[in-house]
Each structure stands twice: as C-alpha cells, then as structure tokens.
Design brief:
Layout: H1 10-45, H2 49-69, H3 74-96
Helix pairs in contact: 1-2, 1-3, 2-3
Length: 101
C-alpha cells in the first residue's frame, strides 16, 4: 500500500484494522465467559451442586485462557473465579454438612 497524501502512515492504518478485528474477538470471548458464569449462578440458585461444579471447571478454563491471552486482567479473572467458587463451595457445604450444635 502506498503512502496516502493525507499524511497517515500505513502502519497506523494496519494497526487500526487489527484493533477492530481484535475487539470483535475479545467481545466474543467476554460474552462466552459471562454466559458460563451466569449458568453457574443459575445452577447455584437451583441448588444443583453437581451441575454447578461441572460448569465451574468450564468457567475456570475460560477465565484462565482469557487472562493468558490478555482479554481480561489476571487479577480480575482470579477475583471472579474466587467469588464463583465460594458460591459453589458454599452450596455444597450447606447441603452436605448439617450445622453442628
């Protein structure tokens, strides 16, 4: 591509095109993560520990991959994973262990 007369650099134009493509991909990844998290929350609300634990593993994988590739910050991913796991663990603890007198 030849240089444009308006003074814009071709590298800047290419970077803008790449940024648009990356933004679309990142949006899809974030949407998938939030959908999985909502499914975990729904399983917790239904008190379905088995399904919640299975979905929690899927959510962990999604958060880890998004953090590794830089879609989300690793501390943000860690915080969300901890909050989800505490909800799932709280569900199984209340169901499995009756309160001790």
């Amino acid at each position: 591509m030849a240089k444009l007369k308006t003074g814009r650099h071709t590298s800047a134009l290419k970077a803008a095109r790449q940024a648009e493509r990356h933004a679309v991909g990142n949006l899809e990844i974030r949407s998938r993560i939030h959908t999985i998290a909502r499914n975990v929350e729904a399983a917790v609300a239904k008190k379905d520990a088995k399904t919640a634990k299975a979905l929690l593993n899927e959510a962990f994988q999604a958060w880890d991959k998004a953090a590794k590739t830089g879609v989300v910050h690793w501390r943000s991913a860690s915080r969300k994973k901890a909050r989800l796991s505490s909800r799932v663990n709280g569900l199984s603890a209340t169901k499995a262990d009756p309160p001790k007198p």
